[in-house]
């Protein structure tokens, strides 16, 4: 699968979200961080904003729910127009049932893991998912520095995907930039969330293109991609 770049609107100008979405229409997805000030210590946006964004852009929405009780709320984001919905393993009460409900409503189902949560306990759940998100910072705020100690976890996740021969995307989120994206790609990631690296650039669309090129080059050299 070709690498994908998902700009995060957490780093965009919230007063101009429709314009900020249009500025990156060459991206693969638009990453929408939903925070409830309970699961993480920050409050961002919810269903009404997702509904408005879905009407304002042709780019599909990739909603990352950093919220408590995603079993209750996640299906509403599919109904609001999200093409992919990510819930946190640490917050879901019945992750298999939730993933199946998200898929049944027509969206891709994804599960996220905080830096301190290992992937191995969730190996049996992987066939129920379309994507796994490995957080490379602690969730809650944009602009944080990339945690290099997550690279082995990305590699282990890629190994599990290969072990079960799954068509499963592997996303990374947190501190992804021109300085870190190649390491993520070499470790096994193929979907990259980038916030300040895109919206902090003078030309966000060009930043997306440059990041995609860097990730694609690194992937072409990666052992996991050659073995796939």
Helices and strands in order, then pairings?
Blueprint: E1 4-7, H1 17-22, E2 30-35, H2 47-56, E3 61-66, H3 70-80, E4 84-88, H4 95-104, E5 108-113, E6 131-135, H5 151-163, E7 169-173, H6 181-187, E8 191-194, H7 196-199, H8 204-221, H9 223-227
Structure overview:
- With 228 residues, the chain is α/β, with parallel strands linked by helices.
- Helix 5 links the parallel strand 6 and strand 7.
- Keywords: Carbohydrate metabolism, Isomerase, Metal-binding.
- This is Ribulose-phosphate 3-epimerase.
- It catalyses: D-ribulose 5-phosphate = D-xylulose 5-phosphate.
- It is an enzyme of class 5 (isomerase).
Tell me, what's the shape?
A: globular
Total strands: 8
- Mean pLDDT equals 96
The CATH architecture designation is Alpha-Beta Barrel
* N to C succession of SSEs: EHEHEHEHEEHEHEHHH
Q: Cα distance, first to last residue?
A: 10 Å
Biggest sheet, strands in spatial order?
1-8-7-6-5-4-3-2
Rg to the nearest angstrom?
16 Å
- Report the biggest beta sheet as strand number plus sense, adding barrel if it closes: 8 strands, parallel
User: How helix-rich are the residues, as a percent range?
Assistant: 25-40%
Task: Kindly identify the CATH topology.
Answer: TIM Barrel
Q: How many separate structural domains? A: 1
Task: Please supply descriptive tags for the structure shown above.
alpha/beta; 8 strands; metal-binding; 37% helix; carbohydrate metabolism; Aldolase_TIM; single chain; 18% strand; 9 helices; EC 5.1.3.1; 228 residues; globular; Ribul_P_3_epim; TIM Barrel
């Amino acid at each position: 699968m070709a690498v994908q770049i998902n700009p995060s609107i957490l780093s965009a100008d919230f007063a101009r979200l429709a314009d900020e979405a249009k500025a990156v229409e060459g991206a693969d997805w638009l990453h929408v961080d939903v925070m409830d000030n309970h699961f993480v210590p920050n409050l961002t946006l919810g269903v009404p904003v997702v509904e408005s964004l879905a009407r304002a852009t042709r780019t599909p929405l990739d909603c990352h729910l950093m919220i408590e009780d995603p079993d209750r709320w996640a299906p509403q984001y599919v109904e609001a127009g999200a093409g992919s919905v990510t819930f946190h393993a640490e917050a879901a009460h019945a992750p298999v049932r939730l993933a199946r409900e998200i898929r049944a409503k027509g969206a891709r189902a994804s599960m996220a893991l905080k830096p301190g949560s290992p992937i191995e306990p969730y190996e049996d759940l992987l066939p129920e998912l379309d994507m796994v998100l490995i957080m490379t910072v602690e969730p809650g705020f944009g602009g944080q520095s990339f945690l290099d100690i997550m690279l082995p976890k990305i590699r282990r996740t890629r190994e599990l995907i290969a072990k079960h021969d799954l068509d499963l995307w592997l996303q990374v989120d947190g501190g992804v930039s021109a300085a870190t994206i190649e390491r993520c790609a070499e470790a096994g990631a193929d979907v990259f969330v980038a916030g300040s690296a895109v919206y902090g650039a003078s030309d966000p669309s060009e930043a997306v293109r440059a990041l995609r090129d860097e990730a694609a080059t690194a992937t072409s050299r990666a052992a996991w991609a050659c073995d796939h």
